[in-house]
Every structure is written in structure tokens, then in C-alpha cells.
């Protein structure tokens, strides 16, 4: 049977793509060469924007229940807390999820795979993509099966979610420009006790050493640190071999090490995210330092961006050119993310007395002062949580009225019982009006079978940058496509005509 989409790789990116496509009625086959979900925790952080998008498939509450909320980050230097950054006071005005959620990737993958199975799609395990051909008619992929035999899978599209060493990317001969840092990192999942085993995140800076602690359960957490010495036997190191100076400065006792590993950090972005009927997502398209826990969340964002576009094209509701907007919107963010995390990584890992002085004395003091400034707090939270990500100036974004423009994430309004994100659970085009919806916009939405949601006007709406009585056309991934002043439907009609998008499948 010919599939609509073949997905290579069943990490979080591939599983989310499969879930969002299946929910929209797209036939998918998802394969993975491994026996099951990864047995180790790897990526740990689920950010606010991912949780917002997870509401589309009723996933957010399950992830929240299973994960651990870190409400603050404590910055230590030389054994003393120099700054405490709390997310809730600022983030609570911007998102329903004003915290860093720590949820180990192995548990995350199991949840996503179970949800996919509930929709009738099973991951084909121990199945490896060996080769593929693609042309205007589709994709033909040769697979190696668990018993050593082979199979040919035909599909309309192929999604490479197969990691940093992506065979799909290599087969496409897409450059993966960037490099590998000299330093070696270690990660350790530990059982711990002491004053800092308190469920919050901690970063400890010491001369020639640092460690970050992320709690993910009572008395359990992950340590991320740097192996300062350049060693040829880094793969053979144990927890006992690495420096404990920064750990001891946290007054933390490690009672048991459940998993330990070392790794090198890469910073690369693929030159292309798509070629013909083949797409690259997640680590197959971009890898960067673990600073800020951005990697997995960015891959999930790739998947949700692509899923609604694939569904629209496969259903005949949009022309093929809609798919080109995937690369246009996601590659710029990936490049910016790699550049930002590269600067932070270089600062954290720089060696020498001057670097130590800046890192231990200057940076914590500046962080404490800066975080007391409201605008700085908001900016930092938006960057960390990915709620600042926008597609302004992109191929699908129109109009610039007010502070909220085409391409922006819709501001969240969550006070006095109001939740304008409740309607975003639908993976569909919709219109929001804040104030009064005029008769002409009501008539247009009714004629197009377009959901229209009208919310009262108030101070919070004005403070969020919304324009009174304007119509906000929202894409199926909940980003603003068009802002129509005074709710005039002509701008919405012109938008769909320009994009060649039909609001219902042809008969």
C-alpha cells in the first residue's frame, strides 16, 4: 500500500510529525532502526511553546503530569548563590506554562509512541532505510527489515527525522555546514541529597569547572558538566574521573549514578531542509550546543510546521508550493539558534584567568541586576521558552498592524477565566476578533465555514499588542497569518487567493 508520508526516525521529532499527520487523516509509515525508544534520558527540557502546541492533541496535560516543573534557575559562583531567576512572575503573564519542564526523553518518547499507537499507527522497529529514489511522482524507499529481508515502501513524501548522522541527508548530498567543539561534556543521571536537591535548577561556576543540575523527580536529577582535560580516552571515563569541584560547591551529595556518558558538541545547519519530495527535520537538519535545552523543542517545532502543510497539499487544499515555506520559515530560526547557543557555549567553556573572572564574578552580578529589569526578564523568558519565535516577513505572513503582526505567535490571554488558546486545540484555520466582530466578517466566516471566535476587549488585550475589532487569521499551527484591520474580510479573501489555498477539499 502506498503511504502518504514515510517517516524515517522515531525520536520526538518523527513521532510528533506522525501524530500531527495522523490526526489530520494522513496515512503515515514510521520506521526506526532501534529496538525501542532510547533507554537513556538525553534531551530533558520541554519548553512553554512546545506545551502550548501540545494542546492541539491533548498532550500537554499528560506531559505536565509526568514531568517535573522547575520554577527557577539558581546561579552559583564559588559556593554561593549569586542570582535566582524565577520564571513565574514574568512568564505567568505570557503563557499557561511559566516554568521549565524537565521530562526525560526516554519517557517522552514512550508517551508519544503510545499516543500514536492509540491512533492506530505502530512504529516499525528494527527497520532501516537503506536507500531511496524520488521524483515528481513520489518516493520509493528500500528498507531492511528485522529478519534481514528487504521491502520497498512507496510514498508521496519522505521525512528524514533520523538524527545528526542522517542517512536521508547524506543520500540527498545536502551540506551540513558547521563544526565540532574541542571540549568533551559529560551527563550523569543521579540520585542525590542535600540542600540543592530541592526540585529547582542550579548552575555552579567554579575556577576551571562548571556544572548544571536539572531536577526531574524528588531526589533525582541530571548533571551536565565539562571534561576540562583533553583526553583520548573520553569514551571510557566514569563519573569518578571528572572534576567534582562545581558539584561540591552546590553542597550536593551524589548518592548513586544511574547513567553516565560523555559526548562532543556539534554546531551545524543543513544548507537545505527540503529537496523535491524529501524533507529534513530535527537533528537531521540542525544540531547545536545543549545550552538552554533548545534542540528537541526545535525539532518538534519543525514537525508541527511541516505537518499541516503536508496535510493541506495531500488533501488537494493547497498547491505544492506551500511546502517550500517549511524551509523558508524554519531554516532562519535554526541558523539564529545555532549562532546564539554558540556564543553562550563559547563563553561558558572559555579557558584562562580572564575567562574565569568574567564567568565567576562579572556574569552572575550582571545576571542578578539585569533580571530585576522587567523588560529584560520578559526578553530572556521569551528566548528560553521559544515564545518569541515568529515568521515575520516569511512567505505565509501578511500585514503589520499593531504590535502583533502576521507571522507572530498569538498572545495568550489567561485572566478572569478567559483562555483564548482553548480554540487552538483544533488543527485548522480560524479567525479571532478582540472586541466586536462586524457583520461582514461574520458573514464571510459563515460562508467559508471558518470558525470565528470573538473575545471581549480589555486592558490585557491592549497590553498584549492586539488591535481592537481587528480580525486575526490563524494558521493551523496557531501562528498569525493575517491581521485584517476593522475585521474586513477582503484581506482574508485575498490572502487565500494569493496562497492558492482552498478551505475545503474539492468534491
Write the SSE topology:
Blueprint: E1 3-8, H1 12-23, E2 28-32, E3 45-46, H2 48-54, H3 60-66, E4 68-70, E5 72-77, E6 80-86, H4 88-91, E7 100-102, H5 105-118, E8 124-125, E9 128-135, E10 138-144, E11 150-160, H6 167-172, E12 176-194, E13 201-206, E14 209-217, E15 220-227, H7 245-249, E16 252-270, E17 274-275, E18 278-280, E19 286-287, H8 295-314, H9 324-349, H10 353-371, H11 374-385, E20 430-434, H12 439-448, E21 452-455, H13 459-463, E22 471-474, E23 480-484, H14 489-499
Parallel strand pairs: 1-2, 1-11, 2-8, 5-13, 11-18, 20-21
Antiparallel strand pairs: 3-7, 4-7, 5-6, 9-10, 10-11, 12-15, 12-16, 13-14, 14-15, 16-19, 17-18, 20-22, 22-23
Helix pairs in contact: 1-5, 1-8
Walk me through the structure.
With 507 residues, the protein is α+β, with helices and mostly antiparallel strands. The protein has 3 domains: 3-67 and 103-175 and 271-340, FAD/NAD(P)-binding domain (3-Layer(bba) Sandwich); 69-102 and 179-268 and 350-371, D-Amino Acid Oxidase, Chain A, domain 2 (2-Layer Sandwich); 390-507, Glutaredoxin (3-Layer(aba) Sandwich). The protein contains 14 helices and 23 strands. It has helices at residues 12-23, 48-54, 60-66, 88-91, 105-118, 167-172, 245-249, 295-314, 324-349, 353-371, 374-385, 439-448, 459-463, 489-499, and strands at residues 3-8, 28-32, 45-46, 68-70, 72-77, 80-86, 100-102, 124-125, 128-135, 138-144, 150-160, 176-194, 201-206, 209-217, 220-227, 252-270, 274-275, 278-280, 286-287, 430-434, 452-455, 471-474, 480-484. The strands form 4 sheets. Strands 1, 2, 8, 9, 10, 11, 17 and 18 form an 8-stranded mixed β-sheet that branches. The protein has an 8-stranded mixed β-sheet with strand order 6-5-13-14-15-12-16-19. The chain starts with a strand and ends in an 8-residue tail after the last helix.
Amino acid at each position: 500500500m502506498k503511504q502518504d508520508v514515510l517517516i524515517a526516525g522515531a525520536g520526538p521529532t518523527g513521532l510528533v510529525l506522525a501524530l500531527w499527520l495522523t490526526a489530520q487523516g494522513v496515512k503515515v509509515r514510521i520506521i526506526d532502526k532501534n529496538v525501542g525508544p532510547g533507554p537513556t534520558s538525553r534531551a530533558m527540557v520541554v519548553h512553554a511553546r512546545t506545551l502550548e502546541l501540545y494542546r492541539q492533541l491533548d498532550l500537554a496535560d499528560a506531559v505536565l503530569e509526568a514531568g517535573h516543573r522547575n520554577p527557577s534557575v539558581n546561579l552559583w559562583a564559588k559556593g554561593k548563590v549569586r542570582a535566582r531567576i524565577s520564571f513565574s512572575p514574568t512568564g505567568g503573564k505570557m503563557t499557561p506554562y511559566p516554568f521549565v519542564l524537565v521530562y526525560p526523553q526516554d519517557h517522552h518518547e514512550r508517551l508519544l509512541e503510545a499516543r500514536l499507537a492509540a491512533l492506530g499507527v505502530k512504529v516499525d522497529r528494527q527497520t532501516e532505510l537503506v536507500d531511496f529514489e524520488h521524483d515528481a511522482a513520489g518516493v520509493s524507499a528500500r528498507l531492511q527489515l528485522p529478519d534481514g529481508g528487504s521491502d520497498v515502501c512507496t510514498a508521496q513524501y519522505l521525512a528524514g527525522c533520523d538524527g545528526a548522522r542522517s542517512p536521508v541527508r547524506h543520500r540527498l548530498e545536502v551540506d551540513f555546514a558547521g563544526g565540532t567543539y574541542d571540549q568533551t561534556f559529560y551527563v550523569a543521571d543521579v540520585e542525590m541529597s542535600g540542600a540543592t536537591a530541592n526540585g529547582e535548577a542550579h548552575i555552579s561556576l567554579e575556577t576551571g569547572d562548571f556544572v548544571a543540575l536539572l531536577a526531574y523527580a524528588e531526589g533525582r536529577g541530571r548533571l551536565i558538566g565539562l571534561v576540562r582535560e583533553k583526553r583520548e580516552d573520553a569514551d571510557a571515563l566514569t563519573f569518578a574521573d571528572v572534576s567534582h569541584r562545581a558539584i561540591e560547591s552546590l553542597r550536593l551529595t551524589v548518592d548513586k549514578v544511574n547513567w553516565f556518558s560523555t559526548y562532543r558538541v556539534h554546531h551545524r545547519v543543513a544548507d537545505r531542509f527540503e529537496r523535491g519530495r524529501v524533507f529534513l527535520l530535527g537533528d537531521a537538519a540542525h544540531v547545536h550546543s545543549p545550552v538552554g535545552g533548545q534542540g528537541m523543542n526545535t525539532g518538534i517545532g519543525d514537525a508541527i510546521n511541516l505537518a499541516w502543510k503536508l496535510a493541506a497539499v495531500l488533501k488537494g487544499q493547497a498547491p505544492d508550493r506551500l511546502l517550500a515555506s517549511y524551509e523558508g520559515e524554519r531554516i532562519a530560526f535554526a541558523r539564529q539558534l545555532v549562532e546564539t547557543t554558540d556564543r553562550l557555549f563559547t563563553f561558558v567553556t572559555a579557558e584562562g584567568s580572564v575567562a574565569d573572572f568574567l564567568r565567576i564574578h562579572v556574569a552572575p552580578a550582571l545576571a542578578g541586576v539585569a533580571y530585576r529589569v522587567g523588560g529584560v526578564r520578559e526578553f530572556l523568558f521569551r528566548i528560553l521558552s521559544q515564545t518569541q519565535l515568529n515568521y515575520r516577513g516569511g512567505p505565509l505572513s501578511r500585514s503589520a498592524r499593531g504590535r502583533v503582526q502576521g507571522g507572530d505567535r498569538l498572545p495568550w490571554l489567561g485572566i478572569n477565566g478567559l483562555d483564548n488558546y482553548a480554540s487552538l486545540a483544533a488543527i485548522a484555520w480560524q479567525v479571532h476578533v478582540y472586541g466586536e466582530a462586524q457583520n461582514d466578517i461574520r458573514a464571510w466566516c459563515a460562508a467559508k465555514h471558518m470558525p470565528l471566535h470573538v473575545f471581549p476587549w480589555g486592558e490585557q488585550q491592549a497590553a498584549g499588542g492586539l488591535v481592537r475589532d481587528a480580525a486575526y487569521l490563524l494558521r493551523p499551527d496557531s501562528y498569525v497569518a493575517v491581521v485584517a484591520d476593522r475585521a474586513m474580510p477582503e484581506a482574508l479573501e485575498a490572502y487565500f487567493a494569493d496562497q492558492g489555498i482552498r478551505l475545503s477539499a474539492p468534491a
